[in-house]
Amino acid sequence: MSISQPPSSGPSAVDTPDSPDQVPMARPRSSGWKLAWGGDNGGGGGSTPKCQWNGRAIPCYHPILGWFNNADGCYYKLEEPQDEAPPGKQWYQLTCNGGDLGSLRRALLDAPPPGYGAPPDPEELARRALASISLLPPRAAVAPRRSQGPGLVGLPVWMWASPGAAYFGPLSASASDRGLTVEITAKVDRIVWHMSDDIDVTCDGPGTPYRADGPRAGSTSPDCGLDQGYPKAGTYQVSATTFWTVEWSGGGESGVIAQSRSSGVVLVQINELQVVTR
Q1: Rounded Cα gap, residues 141 and 13, in angstroms
Q2: Whole-prediction pTM value?
Q3: pLDDT (tens digit, 9 = 90+) per residue, 85-128?
């Protein structure tokens, strides 16, 4: 566990990751036809896909539509059978707007665009395999939290998230095309807790749930917490982001695709310690 800025932690309530007052964070929405792959899936990251349309990744090859041309956003496929054409020219079927089946047209060309007829791209297959699995965003929980009661300045805060392969991996999948198979393995490298505008805490795993009757009640988390607590009173918005590494291999090549997933927001209320004198 590592902390950027002053450490802070403080338990005073038990929480569950699916608490109803967890506020979801806004996420971009993917749009378009079924050719989209590896785009939204709850998050993003990694190297730039080779074929894109309107900001989303799409397959460079489709078994029905043919090969994609980034320059005009159309899939090209040689028409069969061929209509009569001048010498040296051939008719191609174009499916444009990134594969929109409502945008079909024909074109008489001397030659297809660059990339036509290219073999399967291993990284594209890796992204297809990635799109077939769900890397779920973390379900964040903290103690204390506002819905269960306030914490106090300088007391430990515990953070934890739902464990399991869907949230932290490892997950495996594969994708095949024209005789090439690529396999992927996805797992979380770290989870970063955004505790305030100037405090982030990095943990290696999901953390340990706080229990008011547990052996460490009132103490620090054994693996993921803000041990010295918040430095001042206030209401804090806490969220967590998991950073995934997706390793792929196939066709004599290998690589890594980075992904991240972010939780909703959990509110933490921190009060000043009141000293009573007589």
Answers
A1: 10
A2: 0.73
A3: 999 999 999 999 999 888 899 999 999 998 898 889 899 899 99
